[in-house]
Write a structure and sequence with these properties.
alpha+beta, Thiol Ester Dehydrase, Chain A, 6-stranded antiparallel beta sheet, 6 strands, elongated
Length: about 130
């Protein structure tokens, strides 16, 4: 299956006192890639409701190598590793020639009107299955 590829620009302000990208900024980079995959591409591909309410239940990040600022963007590859009735898991890698981090996020579809989790609908499931890797 396909991976979603997003190119993220690093900001000078992302660096910390040790002159590498601060660990908190990795979450921002993952968020940018996830928003691009769920909201931008998802809306174009018929899974509009993913942009109307999804909450994060869990993040997990393995920092593989320090990343330093540079003007060239880094690549973030995102895929779906698991789909349940009312949750799904995304996998990520932040990389160029080097893998800097591997991560995963558990997401839960959420009804903003009812203020509670909801099940995935068929359009969402079909969209996510296009990125499913085992």
């Amino acid at each position: 299956m396909a991976r979603h590829v997003y190119h993220a620009t690093l900001r000078w302000s992302d660096m910390d006192a040790y002159q590498h990208i601060n660990n908190v900024q990795y979450l921002r980079l993952l968020e940018e890639a996830r928003v691009d995959m769920m909201f931008t591409l998802g809306q174009r591909e018929g899974a509009k409701t993913l942009s109307e309410g999804v909450v994060i239940a869990r993040h997990e990040i393995d920092y593989v190598r320090p990343m330093v600022w540079r003007p060239e963007p880094v690549r973030i590859e995102t895929w779906v590793s698991k789909i349940g009735a009312a949750r799904f898991t995304l996998g990520y890698e932040i990389l160029d020639e080097t893998v800097y981090a591997r991560a995963s996020s558990v997401l839960v579809p959420y009804s903003l009107d009812e203020q509670r989790p909801r099940r995935l609908n068929e359009d969402e499931r079909r969209y996510l299955e296009g990125f499913l890797e085992s």
